[in-house]
Specification:
This protein has helices at residues 29-41, 94-103, 119-125, 169-172, 188-205, 225-231, 260-278; strands spanning 2-7, 19-26, 46-49, 55-57, 61-69, 74-79, 83-89, 106-107, 128-130, 133-135, 140-146, 152-156, 175-185, 238-239, 242-244, 252-254, 287-289. It is of the alpha+beta class. The strands form five sheets. Strands 6, 7, 8, 11, 12 and 13 form a six-stranded antiparallel sheet that branches. It is globular and about 55 Å long.
Length: 290
C-alpha cells in the first residue's frame, strides 16, 4: 500500500516533477483512515491530494507522506418532497459529483461544471462560481473529519468558517472524510443546461485542456487578479516552459517539462510587476508546497 520515492508529476494538473518520500493511493473509507492514522503514528507530515489541481510542489523532493484520495462515494441519506441530503466522500471528483447529482435532479453543484479536483479540495478552498455567485460550502450541513490524532469527529457547517478562498481546514489541517449537503430537487434537464452553460463559459474564458494548476492568485479587494496581471503587461511572460496564459492572465501554463525553479521565478516576476504597477500584493490561491 505504501510506496517510497514516487514521482507526483502524473498526479497533479500542472505536471511538474516532484518526488514524494512516501506515497499511498487509497480507494475506500477504511483505507483513507488507516493511512492517515499510520502517518500520524509514524510522526509523518501528511498531505492528502485528490485531483491534484490547485497544488504546486515547489521542491524536487517532497518530504511528506502524500496520500492520493480515490475514495469515491455518493449516497442519499435523507429525503423530503423538495430536498435530499447527500453524503459525499472527500475523494469524489467534482465532475462525478455533478454528473450524479444532476442525474438525480438535485440542484446545487451544476454551475461548478469544469472545476477540476475533488470534493475535499473544493471544500478546503471553498471554491466559487461567479455567474451567479456561489460557493462550494453553501449547502453543507455537516462533515466527518480526522483530527491530528486520527480520531473521527463530526462537525456542522459553522465549524468551517467559510470565506472567500478559505475554510477553517486550512488552519486546523484536519482531513475531510465525508460531507453531507442538503440539495433542492429540480428538473434534470434544467440542471444539465446550467452545467453545459458553465462549462462553455469556462472554455471560452480560461485555458482548457492544458497543464495548469488553475487560478494562481487570489483576487484583491474585489479586483480580479487576472485583470491586474493583464494590465501590468504580463500576458505571455515566460520563464523556461512556464508561461502566463494569453487567454486568462491568472493561469500559468506548463508547456513542457517545466522546472519548478522557473515557475518560482515567474511567480516572483508577476508579484513584483503587479506591485510596481498597481501597488498591491498578490497572494497565491494555489497551495505552494515547500
Amino acid at each position: 500500500m505504501y510506496q517510497q520515492n514516487v514521482d507526483l508529476k502524473q498526479f497533479t494538473t500542472v505536471k511538474a516533477a516532484a518526488v514524494a518520500s512516501l506515497f499511498a493511493t487509497v480507494k475506500t473509507r477504511e483505507e483513507l483512515i488507516e493511512a492517515v492514522r499510520y502517518g500520524y503514528k509514524q510522526g509523518l507530515d501528511i498531505m492528502v491530494i485528490g485531483g491534484g489541481s490547485n497544488t504546486v510542489f515547489a521542491t524536487d523532493r517532497v518530504d511528506k507522506f502524500v496520500i492520493r484520495n480515490q475514495y469515491f462515494s455518493l449516497e442519499v441519506v435523507a429525503e423530503t418532497d423538495n430536498s435530499a441530503d447527500v453524503k459525499v466522500s472527500s475523494g469524489l471528483p467534482v465532475s462525478m459529483l455533478i454528473q450524479k447529482t444532476v442525474e438525480k435532479g438535485l440542484e446545487g453543484f451544476e454551475y461548478h461544471q469544469g472545476l477540476p479536483g475533488s470534493l475535499g479540495g473544493a471544500l478546503y478552498m471553498n471554491s466559487k462560481w461567479t455567474k451567479p455567485l456561489m460557493y462550494f460550502g453553501d449547502q453543507l450541513i455537516s462533515a466527518t473529519l480526522l483530527d491530528k490524532e486520527g480520531n473521527e469527529k463530526i462537525v456542522v457547517r459553522d465549524y468551517f468558517k467559510f470565506e472567500y478562498d478559505f475554510s477553517e481546514l486550512q488552519n486546523t489541517k484536519e482531513i475531510l472524510v465525508e460531507a453531507v449537503f442538503r440539495l433542492t430537487k429540480a428538473e434534470p434537464t434544467l440542471l444539465k443546461r446550467r452545467a453545459a452553460e458553465a462549462l462553455a463559459y469556462r472554455k471560452e474564458t480560461q485555458p482548457f485542456g492544458v497543464a495548469t494548476s488553475g487560478c494562481m492568485f487570489q483576487n484583491v479587494d474585489g479586483r480580479s487578479a487576472g485583470e491586474l496581471i493583464d494590465k501590468a503587461g504580463l500576458k505571455g511572460s515566460r520563464v523556461g516552459n512556464f508561461v502566463v496564459s494569453e487567454k486568462h492572465a491568472n493561469f500559468i501554463i506548463n508547456e513542457g517539462d517545466g522546472k519548478i525553479e522557473d515557475l518560482k521565478t515567474l511567480l516572483d516576476l508577476v508579484r513584483s510587476k503587479v506591485k510596481e504597477v498597481h501597488g498591491v500584493e498578490l497572494v497565491e490561491e494555489v497551495r505552494i508546497i515547500e
